[in-house]
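Quick one - first record:
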Amino acid sequence: MAKSSSPLCDWTPEQLALGKRWVENWRLTGIELERIRAEELRSLDAYRAIELLCFDADYTIPPRAPLPTSGLIEQQ
């Protein structure tokens, strides 16, 4: 079995330096993106998110209004 050589063996020192910079930039970008994500989650208004998901529904009139009883009496 032939010994496999590294895919980077043909790269020049400049290409290696650029590759290392590229990897470091993505590492730092990942850290910054995670910080932004965490900040957005902390500032999230749950009530506003529910409002956006449920649209402008009026929960005081049928069919979305709650029933006058839970139905337990009818089940007995």
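second record:
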Amino acid sequence: GVALDPAPPATGAAVGAPPLDAAPPWRMRRRDWRIAAAAAGADRTTLRTVVVDDPALTAVASCIERALGGITFDRRLLGTGVGADPAAEELRLTTPLSLRDPTFARLEVAADAVFSLQVDGRSVIDRVDLREPLLATLALPSGTCELEVRFAPRAAGAGAPPASRVTLAFELLPQRAAARALGVRHATQVREPVVRIQDPGALDEQSLVRPLLRGTTGPGDAFLPCDFDRSGRFDLWLHALTPADAGATLEVAIGDLAPRTVALPPAAGWQWHRVASPFDVAAGVSALRVALATDGMRLDQIAWLPSEFAFPRPPPGDRALWDHAWRFDPLGVGIVLDLTGVRPGERFGRVFELEKGGSYRLFAWLKGDDPQRGDGGSELELASATTRMRFLLPPGTPVEEWVALGEVALLAGERIELKGQGDGAPARIALVR
């Protein structure tokens, strides 16, 4: 995210950009917001938010967030809110949206102001007094439209807003990614010294390996047919096992494109590795050639997916890529309960009722260190007149991600109590029918 300077810039003044020169353009997602204030009578500036999809670059500047692009404004952009006409001091932000498919977006906003939102002129949220932070999911249509958010001070007599900041975060939620993968059993040709072997530790129980001290000269490669469903940029992911005490090198080429040399770090087990830059390919079937240059390394799957898709965290090495190639977000399709944040070891509680009974899948969202630290992890208890369940989230459970806990049967209208405690205690609970 990019923060505006606390003092509002003059009309037309540029907003400083973070030092992103080290980030490759295909690993950045930008969004431009046009800022206008009715009192000024003209646009003040254009603000650009940038999301960097590269763990190595998240420390480039403190204003880059890992998960979503945020916009932060000083309260003084809204005026004092005392004895003023709210409409005269209204602050408006607009950004164009162009979507190939219908999708959802997550909106988080916190401000001591009155908030409204429109999508292509249609009112979605109308003048909500933000006494507390708002979290919402928007259903967005395909095609081109404009998103407009508005902040206005409260009416006279409502009390002056405190010296706080106004924060807005907007993020398009990825749908399940159409990740495609090939196991090495699909290789049409394997050439020495690389051989194909039965491998119980591989995802498909087969892998390509360059045996140690084989002493055979040759290209040491294999060919696999890749079927790209459309033209465009695709990221290539390699599922490989490298020597634990040294890195490994391989070469990848698609069709007539120039080959890429990929350096893989040492690892204790199988890992997914993304080739540094995407391949610009044409739709159809292309021959993919992979050459193993390091003795002792193994390769069992190659996967590809559109480069605009970003993982919320690196995919686990012991699972197929398509099992992890989406970020589940129950907002908009389930019931989400925000829980009061607690310090490690403290306990919280929440009581609620459901309008509809039935079987619900339960998910938790943790905040804290990643992975969750502590000796005992976290725990969550759910109790009602008909059900009592206890869920444990051990150390190592990922944070900032929805974690499936299990299923629970609940009745409509019954009193349901949630209790939890521990390091990284759940910040949100979701129930999905």
